[in-house]
Amino acid sequence: DELWKAIERVELKHSGVALDTVISESGANFSAGQRQLICLARAIVRNNKILIMDEATANVDQHTDSLIQTTIRQAFKDCTVITIAHRINTIIDCDRVLVMDHGQAVEFGPPHELLGQKDGHFAQMVEQTGPTMSSKLRKQAKDSYNQKRAVESQKSD
């Protein structure tokens, strides 16, 4: 029952995946997106408190990317999630971002605060996405930051 709930949560229930489905070496009989979703379902079943995602959505379509991001935010909201990513939209609503440059940590903090540093690495990366995307990312970061502060404020009251 727990396995089916996890499979359902990552929307693989109606994809032909069954509990007796044979998974070939390296999951070659599944798409990259399906392999990521199976790994996510496994992490849900294990009830992991720390989840490390290394370019988890780099080779998947937009729908699967969105599904993975939504599942992570819901299923692991009370966990530590370390996300290694090149796409800024993947991490824009995280609690904190560590920006690396040539193997060195150059910035660390909430995305919204990092975006306030006009000459900062993170702010410059966001600006390089173009005016439309930059505006969208800034809004996402601000909204997420404000929402988290509101929740923290309610907890302390």
TrEMBL record:
Which residues does the annotated region (Disordered) include? 130-157
Q: Which UniProt keywords apply?
A: ATP-binding, Nucleotide-binding
| Lineage of origin | Eukaryota, Metazoa, Ecdysozoa, Arthropoda, Hexapoda
Tell me the first and last residues of the signal peptide. none
Native organism: Dendroctonus ponderosae
A Gene Ontology cellular-component term: membrane
InterPro entries recorded for this chain? ABC_transporter-like_ATP-bd, ABC_transporter_C-like, P-loop_NTPase
Report TM segments: none
What GO MF terms are annotated?
A: ATP binding; ATP hydrolysis activity; ATPase-coupled transmembrane transporter activity
Listed name of the protein? Uncharacterized protein
